[in-house]
Every structure is written in C-alpha cells, then in structure tokens.
From TrEMBL:
Protein's UniProt name: MoxR-like ATPase
InterPro entries: AAA+_ATPase, ATPase_AAA-3, CbbQ/NirQ/NorQ/GpvN, ChlI/MoxR_AAA_lid, P-loop_NTPase
Pfam family, one: AAA_3
Molecular function in Gene Ontology: ATP binding; ATP hydrolysis activity
PANTHER family documented for this protein: MAGNESIUM-CHELATASE SUBUNIT CHLD, MOXR FAMILY PROTEIN
Domain AAA+ ATPase: residue ranges: 45-192
SUPFAM superfamilies in UniProt: P-loop containing nucleoside triphosphate hydrolases (SSF52540)
Length: 333
C-alpha cells in the first residue's frame, strides 16, 4: 500500500488523503468528482448511500475503484425478484465430518460480509430481502442460524436505483429510505468526458489503482469528523432547512404545499455530520453555511414524500430543495 504523508493537523491530513484518493480514482474514472466526494463523505460519516442513475454511468466502476483505493473489500450483488434474505446474509449448512461420520454446522457468510457492498437495483427485490439488508445496515450485524455475526467495519452500502424504470419494482418504504445517509444522483457524463471514456477505456486500469488509506486510517478519520465543532448559527440553519420541509411548518412558499411528509430529525443529524466531514475535507476545522447548503440536496432529496400536487405540477424534490435554499434565511448569531 502506498501511504499518504500524514500531517499532524487532522484537517490537513484529510485534505492530503483526498488529493491522493482523487489521483487514484482518476486512473479509472472520468469526471464524476462530485459523486466520488459524496461517497467519501458518506464513508467518513459511517453512512450509506442510495445512488440514482441509469445503467452504464459508472456506478459499479466507481464503487470498485473507491474500495480498492481505500484498501477495502468490495462485493456486488444484483438484486433480483427471486433473491432471498439468506442469499445476502448467509446460511448455515450441515457438513459431514469424514473422520467421525458426524454432522457439524458450518456458517457460509453471504456477500453482505464486505466493507463496500454494491446492492445493484435494490428496488428489484421483494421487501423481505430489502429489509434484511436495511437491518444489517442499521445494526452492523446479521443473524445466521442461531448465531449473530458482526459485519466488517467500515461497512458502506451503496444501493442503486434506476430513476426511469419503475415497472416491476418494489419501492423502498419511506422509513427505510430515511436510513440512507445520502441520495446521490449519478448523471450522464458531458461530451468531453464521454469521448475520453469511449476512446481511452480507463475502466481497464482498475489493477493500477493503489490503496492510499486503509480501514484503520478511516476509523481514525471517522472519529475526527465527529469531533469537529459547529457554531450554533450554522447548526440552527441546518435544522431550519430540515424543519421547513414539514407541511405543519407551512412557512416557505413553493415548498410545503408540495410535501406530504417532510424530513425527520435524522436528516438534521445527517446534515450537521456531513457538514463537519465536508469542512474537514476542505481543510477547515469549522463548518460553514456553505457546507450545509452544498449537502442539503443529498441529505434531503430521498426524505421528502411529495404529494399529488407535486406530481400533477411535475415538480421534484430537487426543485423543492432549491426553493428551500433560496428562502430559508442564514441568520448569523
Ligand atoms: N465515468 C466513467 N469513467 C470511466 N469509465 C466509465 C465511466 N462511466 C462509464 N464507464 C464505462 O462504462 C462501463 C459501465 O459502467 P458501470 O458498469 O460501472 O455502470 P453502472 O452504472 O454500474 O451500470 P450497470 O448497473 O449496468 O453495471 C464501465 O465498465 C466503464 O468502462
């Protein structure tokens, strides 16, 4: 593993790690810098991410490259209608001991046992299997047979959904969507980036990607992120944005009339924590209003339940969040 020189200041250490990571990702991934940065933030905050994007925009390649550059084990599971909970958690089998002729129980761990799990097309599998994954995400452990097993740490689930194709899918219930720290839109590349993808096939360079951090360094950074201070006025702004999504608040024009159910306090926690990680990633030891604003879409877009009027007027969560950011005031203490 090639190591990143480690300055003693945590903010400087994290920005140095970011630079090294960017250089490794660039070997394989063209563009998609914002996606990569949000994935790193989720990892630093011990969160999981929902990736919205059509097939072929590099979600799998990005996840595999990120895992390699962080020296983490990567698994990918295609979620299909016939996938059972045991197919992802693991199963118990009986094996005959040839010496004694007795049977013994063997635990076969499923693909959940990885540091980075790509749950491809999570909404193609029935609720029972979705629930098994979401429970593992929440508890960091799974029960196989009679035994409970701890999942590796760090543990990052990247669940993908195709935003266009909804037929034959099982939409995740709101309560389960809320468990995802971020919802990240993975867009088509621009023309220049696509040309580079088409001509240079950078995806083949995965074997040249070096690890620039490892699980231990990540754990240390996760702890540092938690400890970043946040000024009360910036924290209040984060909470005001979240609470303004609730219809009963009724205060922001163009927002609450389109929302059936707003974001929970878990969103406030996520916004504050993500703000801390972004500040540190940018070499600052304090959270800015700009950190909160930059992260509001990824924290909120999957947590707003839109009503009939929103569908009728073809307004979406991102348009609503843009209005929220335009109207909720930043009040300095
Ligand atoms: N931004 C990108 N940089 C480099 N290669 C890319 C990029 N986007 C797509 N590709 C190329 O397209 C191929 C398909 O990408 P990938 O499998 O990661 O897409 P996906 O979004 O996970 O879709 P699917 O779920 O269908 O696999 C990759 O192997 C790679 O060659």
């Amino acid at each position: 593993m090639s190591t990143v020189s480690t300055p003693s200041d945590p903010a400087a250490r994290l920005s140095a790690a970011r630079e090294a990571l960017r250089n490794e990702l660039k070997k394989c991934i063209v563009g998609q810098e914002d996606t990569a940065e949000l994935l790193l933030l989720a990892l630093l905050c011990r969160g999981h991410a929902l990736l919205l994007g059509v097939p072929g925009v590099g979600k799998t390649l990005m996840s595999a490259t990120l895992a390699k550059a962080l020296h983490l084990e990567f698994h990918r599971v295609q979620f299909t209608p016939d996938l059972m909970p045991g197919d992802i958690t693991g199963t118990e089998v009986l094996e005959e001991d040839p010496a004694t002729g007795r049977y013994r129980r063997l635990v076969m761990q499923g693909p959940l046992f990885a540091n980075v799990l790509l749950a491809d097309e999570i909404n193609r599998t029935p609720p029972k299997t979705q629930a098994a994954l979401l429970q593992a995400m929440q508890e960091g452990e799974v029960t196989i047979g009679r035994e409970t097993h701890k999942l590796p740490s760090p543990f990052l689930v990247l669940a993908t959904q195709n935003p266009i194709e909804m037929e034959g899918t099982y939409p995740l219930p709101e309560a389960q969507l809320d468990r995802f720290f971020f919802c990240i839109r993975v867009e088509y590349p621009n023309l220049e980036d696509e040309l580079s993808i088409a001509l240079n096939a950078p995806g083949n360079a995965l074997s040249t990607v070096n690890a620039v951090l490892d699980a231990e360094a990540l754990h240390a950074l996760q702890k540092t992120v938690q400890a970043v201070p946040i000024a009360t006025d910036v924290g209040r702004y984060a909470v005001s944005l979240v609470s303004a999504t609730r219809p009963q608040s009724g205060s922001v024009a163009g927002v609450t009339e389109f929302i059936e159910c707003g974001a929970s306090p878990r969103a406030s926690q996520a916004l504050v924590l993500a703000g801390k990680a972004r500040a540190l990633l940018n070499g600052r030891a304090h959270v800015d209003f700009a950190d909160i604003r930059a992260l509001a879409p990824a924290v909120l877009r999957h947590r707003l339940v839109l009503n009939f009027r929103a569908r009728a007027e073809k307004t979406d969560a991102d348009a609503i969040i843009a209005r929220l950011l335009a109207h909720v005031p930043q009040e300095k203490a």
